[in-house]
Amino acid sequence: MRSLDDVKIAIIGLGYVGLPLAVEFGKKRSVIGFDINESRIFALKSGHDSTLEVSDQELAEAKHLQFSSGVNSLADCNVYIVTVPTPIDEHRQPDLTPLIKASETIGKVLSKGDIVIYESTVYPGATEEDCVPVLEKYSGLKFNVDFYAGYSPERINPGDKEHRVTTIKKVTSGSTPEIAVLVDSLYREIITAGTHMASSIKVAEAAKVIENTQRDLNIALINELAIIFNKMGIDTEAVLSAAGTKWNFLPFRPGLVGGHCIGVDPYYLTHKAQSIGYNPEIILAGRRLNDGMGAYVVSQLVKAMIKRRVHVDGARVLVMGLAFKENCPDLRNTKVVDIVKELVDYNVQVDIFDPWVSVEEAQHEYSVTPITEPERGAYDAVIIAVAHAEFIKLGAEKIRAYGKPDHVIYDLKYILSAEDSDLRL
After folding, report:
1. How far is CA 340 from the centre of its chain?
2. Which of 12, 16, 187, 194 has the highest CB neighbour number within 10 Å of its CB?
């Protein structure tokens, strides 16, 4: 490949990251959008994105984008962009299985001169140490002689219609100086916010993994402050509002830390740190605190119910929201499930209400079945777990109407005033 004119792109993985990228490139040049999920491919071919990251109109505008689940469709491509998930396993260790499988697939069709660009979040070194050997094995080609690699970390914010793939500055990198320039030039075709060409693939990998680690630690600090202030009988939101009058106070709020990024990425960095003999105490402390917030929320609710002489055993609790964040259907690593599990341990009957999420996906991923509409006057407690616009629109009076005459409202997201809620983080 000698110039951008020769580039034929394949996007491997069409989730929250891959599809918006495929659509933007597909407006300008020939793109194959590849995913092993045949039902996903069928839906996209019919013109609809179930994640709601891309509208039907935007899909239609990507005139040069084709969708496929067949490996043979990739053979004519020469730039492969990998956007598959990089989750953690039950032991909170990185699970590179999707990344390795994607690399195997690409390796089978890789040709001389091709470039493989990874966007999936990994620890520093994963691209060249874990993925490239797989590409070499399955292709029979030699890295940086016959084929090349790049890394350009995704910066997708699910549900955010203001910060889109094109309007967020993109970090790029390549395995040689020449490839780095080519990769950067390719992304600059669609990224209106501009690009930042990192000095190496490892630098780009490290930059990505610390973005969400920093957010995780900041939220952990605020969560710990909320626990302290609750013990002191001080309203945390009032404290944060007062402190926020200083120009350099960061506007973080307490809450559940879920999703595919903030609650996952730090474990990739800590895994790598431990593998080289360093125990990252601060990062892991923040993770422990944030992972324990579901249990803390339920303990506070149970105490409040007992004080009101509400019988906990057999009580009915409405949990409003299941998605990991507001106004999107994304259920990946949602920590609302931690609240549900804790309540079930108290023999509480839990109804989950979330108009955004897929009932089938909730059943498949977490073995829970959200209800279509809460019952009026039926609940001993209501937990507002996600700040969906629909919940904000309801207001305190209509949310209170879901409760029995004596009930507890626990507002985790500050959508109600202090006076209208019984508990807040």
Report:
1. 20
2. 12
Q: How far apart are CA 301 and CA 312, in angstroms?
A: 10
Report the pLDDT value the prediction gives residue 2, as an integer from 0 to 100.
64
d(CA 276, CA 279): 9
255 Cβ contact list (under 8 Å, min separation 6): 219, 223, 293, 412, 413, 425
**In a 3-state reduction of DSSP, which class is residue 317?**
strand
Q: According to the model, what pLDDT value does residue 156 have?
A: 81
Active centre residues (catalytic): 261
Q: Would you mind telling me the total number of residues written for the chain in this entry?
A: 425
Q: Answer whether 0.85 is exceeded by the pTM.
A: yes
Residue 295: which H helix or E strand, with range?
helix 293-307
DSSP-assigned letter for residue 73: G
Q: Do the beta carbons of residue 118 and residue 149 sit within 8 Å? A: yes
- Token output for 344: 């079930």
Whether the predicted pLDDT of 161 surpasses 90 = no
Between helix 201-232 and helix 293-307 the angle, nearest 10°, is 20
Q: What angle do CA 85, 90, 91 make, to 5 degrees?
A: 110
Q: Are 12 and 105 within 8 A, CB to CB? A: yes
Tokens read off for 360: 């089938």
